[in-house]
Amino acid sequence: MKAMSLLRLLTAVALGFMAGGCEHKDLCYDHSHMTEINIAFDWADAPDAAPISMVAHFFTMDGEYYRRVEFAKREGGRARVEAGEYIVLFHNGAMEVVREHGSSLSDYMLGCESRTILEPMGRAETAPRPPYAEEQPVAGVPEEVWTGMNTHVTVLPGLSGQTVTLSPRVATKEYTVQINDVENISDAVDLSAAITGMSSRYHLSAQTHTGPVSTLPLGLEKVDDHTLVARFRAFGHCPEGSSIHTFTVYTSEKTYYNFDITSQMHSGSDPNHVFVEIEGLKLPNAGTGMSPSVSGWDNVVEEEIKMN
Questions:
Q1: What are phi and psi of 299, to 5 degrees?
Q2: If you average pLDDT over residues 24-38, what whole number do you get?
Q3: pLDDT at 145 exceeding the cut of 80
Q4: What are the CA-CA distances from residue 102 to residues 121, 169, 205 (Å)?
Q5: For residue 6, is pLDDT > 50?
Q6: What CA–CA distance (Å, rounded) separates 148 from 146?
Q7: Cα-flanking dihedrals φ and ψ of residue 169, to 5°?
Q8: How many Å apart are CA 249 and CA 123, to the nearest integer?
Q9: Which helix (H) or strand (E) segment is 93 a member of?
Q10: Which helix (H) or strand (E) holds 281?
Q11: 252 φ, ψ to 5°?
């Protein structure tokens, strides 16, 4: 009997501890501290923008990450956040090449995924890297990106109808490299290109492009029988001081051609729309290049790289 009484006593004590513990673990069903607000994107600075989606990142005023909200429409939508003060970074979402990086206001960036140098030609093999860029990472070419920052957003508790207006601006710049007087353009010879000294990341809180200095692989478009053009976007160039810009043309015949376009990249009148021209290029005839079984490449043109 004494043993049975002791067992009952211990059981009662255990149940008491369990009940006390449960009191501290009750789920919170009180959402009164959350407030629904309207996020409205004002496209006055980019009226033709057509993003797939828009993303807003809320950071506390000390720079700590709070919440990411994505909107299916470019106009915005509703978001539920705690009442308080925030810094908001925003950009378009659902991008193919550009990815989000960082976990705080100071290190949050958009960056391009890595690529292979001959990817625009549809080849996975390696190829000679442009001069002075042998160690540069090869990054993808970004799609058009729109970004912005609101440095102080106040969300009041329990007040309906609050609207936060965000104004995106285009963050990418447009580049065109045109090659004139091209000989032997043929559908039988595949072509691609690359450019060095470019930015592959964009720092949102600083609203500027940044490093590392990267090489971008590019597609080449046939304009006519004597003209090739590469049209692409980038966050910018020379993200870490002065840089050399080499434009390299690769062929499926394993020949490549280097052109120093540094001066034209740096002297353009419109930094948001840079236009570069290259005069003269003689491509190989189909079947006259290196044998596919030979790993070497033939450097046909190596222009002097100016260091100024």
A1: -85, 105
A2: 62
A3: yes
A4: 32, 21, 11
A5: no
A6: 7
A7: -130, 155
A8: 14
A9: strand 84-93
A10: strand 273-282
A11: -70, -10
What integer pLDDT is reported at residue 288 of this predicted model? 63
What pTM value is reported for the model?
Answer: 0.84
**Would you tell me how many other CB atoms lie within 10 Å of the CB of residue 54?**
25
Q: In 3D, which of 112, 83, 125 has the Cα closest to residue 251? A: 125
Q: Tokens at residue 45, please?
A: 């600075």
- Report whether pLDDT(292) > 70: no
Residue 77 confidence (pLDDT) above 70? yes
Residue type present at position 214? S
Measured distance CA(281)–CA(258) in Å, rounded: 10
pLDDT of amino acid 300: 72
Is residue 236 within 8 Å of 187, Cβ to Cβ?
A: no
User: What amino acid is encoded at 44 in this protein?
Assistant: A
**C-alpha to C-alpha distance for 120 and 152, rounded to whole angstroms:** 42
Task: Pull the structure tokens for residue 193.
Answer: 């290109």
Classify residue 84 as left (phi > 0), alpha (psi -120 to 50) or beta. Answer: left
- Determine the length of the chain: 308
